[in-house]
Amino acid sequence: VGIIIGGAFTSIVNSLVNDIIMPILSIFTRKIDFTNLFITLDGSTYDTLEAAKKAGAVTINYGAFITGILNFLIMAFVVFLLVRWINQFKKPEPTAAPTTKQCPYCF
What we know:
2 strands, single chain, Non-ribosomal Peptide Synthetase Peptidyl Carrier Protein, Chain A, elongated
């Protein structure tokens, strides 16, 4: 059940990053589309990543990597908040009395 919920939650986070956060970030970065940020290793120039892939160029897609980092950070933050919220419902454990005894061989 947890794996199914996790998979569904991953798609929600991906949508949040790709459809809401990345467009807002593109406003501050002069309307750059992060998914089209790439470097071709052969030195050729292409307008889009799709054009480079159609031409068979080998690319480093650092825009997809930036998006992946944002997905991870949001997922980690949400899991942190969820665990923190769940821990509020735990009862504090009572402190146990110390289990010390007198040693007959010690002074």
